[in-house]
Amino acid sequence: MKPKETLRSRIILAVILLLAFLLRFAQPTLVEFKRDEPTVSRLAQAIAYEGYRPAVGVAASVGPDNLPLNLYLMALPIRLWDDPLAAVLFAMLLNWLAVWGCYALGKLYFGTEIGLIAALLFAVNPWAVLYARKIWSLSMPWATLIFFATLYLTFVRGRRWALVAALLAGTVMLGLHLSGLAVILIMGLALLLYRDQVSPQALLIGLTLSLIAVAPYILHDAFHHWENLRGFLAYAGRSSSFSWNALRFAFILSGSEGIDGQAGPFHEQFRAAVPPLWWMNGAMMLLLGLALAYAVWQSLRAPTQAQRRTFGLLLMWFFVPVALQLSAGATTQLHYFVILYPVQFLLVAKLLVEGLRRIPPARLKWGQAALVISLLVWSTWQMAITYQLHTYMAQHPSTGGYGIPLKFKREAAHLALNAAGEAEIIVVSDSNRPFVAETPTVFDSLLFGHPHRFTDGRTDLPVPSAPRVVYLVGPLRDAPDEPLTPMVQRLSSWPTVTAGPSVRLPDGVSYRIFIRQSQTQADVTAKMQPLAAGVPFANHAVFVSYQAPAESRPGESLTVWLAWWVQNPPPERQDYHFTVQLLDSEGQLRTQNDHAGFPSDYWRTGDVVLSRFEIPLPDDLPSGLYNLRAGMYSYPDIAAVPVVDAAGSPTDDGVTLAFLPIR
Description:
Distance between the termini: 94 Å
Strand order of the largest sheet: 4-3-6-8-7
Number of domains: 3
Largest sheet: 5 strands, mixed
Helix content: 40-55%
Radius of gyration: 30 Å
Number of strands: 19
């Protein structure tokens, strides 16, 4: 290549990398941050700061656990900065470098021009940008590129010892996500078809090193009754039906088709906000189809063995992951095919350049100009879609499948931390379990290093025995049926509680901060009926007061509030459910409300917990005087926790709160 052409290529590459950087790093806190992302972040924090050394990773959507490599990888930036944003930026960096890797691999396979075109298509692709901003384990184009570069060196360039690197790169892909299982089949096909380039020594060393790398996962599974192996077998044994969705999704990822679905109910407005060139996605898919046909032809009829093998590897890259999902035991998802990036763009770039080479010399400049203009129009349109996606996430952050972005959750966490100082933070949402529900998982990561607990605000509100506590409540929706509203109203009614700052999203969702300052907890039970000196239970919980209507009617919902406090945490790890029941004059159960209550592993000595029960009254409930009774039982064995006397001896299986007239 001439020096002038080299300089021009470097300038073009620099521009492409700049575009890729701006698209991937723009407004980094507007990234998706639902359950998977904070789970990875929180486990990475545990690795970086708490000595956690997992042999398995997060569970895959098909059932078995992933290998833990992604967790250890994300622990590297987290160790430098414990904010989840560090992991987000690190993932963006790796996936930005993948654009350069696309150029390098394209240049290695086919030449500079094809490397530049493929890198441009990859850089501006909205789906690629969306997935590049995630910290989940599927965002691994950089690893895929390394794997196929080593395959090329082994089977096309004849660097036989590169097979060791190829096997290790494949193990890295498997370690990041179980979708990397596709590389095992790809490697097997390559070893079989191109066995003349296989060094037995390199194969043995590579397999040995790979086995050593995955040994902790295998040993963990062996010591846990082969749970993951049984999960694989169960998945493989599921009834399945053939579907073309896998191939359709592989083609969709070449452009921006379907990305308006991220806007949920606003998808029509989303489409209208960008130039109406959606037909271009069809054109790109057509090009990809032609490129695949061309690659098949070249893999069979190319003049040299190196060319045939080059196209053969690219076809394996595209078709093996697709073939594995054509008849699957679970619903095929678009993100399963991130492993294809950026093979679509390499194939299309090769087709475009080969098409130019077949233009007569007299018209070549016109063909080149047409290609450049087409690439500029396509790239500009794709970037406009990504820009609109970021705009949508800022304007409508709580609608659609994207979820509330990290920005708003992180801001709420920072407000709570600033308000708390050294005080504990209670996160009030629709669940109390991190790694099970989204909101607790999110704030377990964002509040890392600060004392915090979680409660299901639909049923329970703990009040610690502390002079100051901060409540972070949300997400709250401005709707009459918002399930957190009764508890928020109760909390804000206490004279010891003041409202702090809040984070209000543009579409009617908010996170609110409440600060409680008091030396006592008397205000919690001030307007409730006391239960003598308290009713102690065998697990060290004491029912102290309640609130219920003076009477009720059939067909209504009976709201009962119960206050109880923790003498000491329970003597052993045990889950408890609370129950409030309505018994008739003959002691027959007529209706009840049970819930899991505030988890016993969160109990702290001196806690007062306010529990809410919503009891439906049947329409045909006869009039009369009913016994309103409360108790608790261990779960899942459903054994009643007895009421005890001063000596600790059982006296009853519950307590009567009141006799309630039903008229």
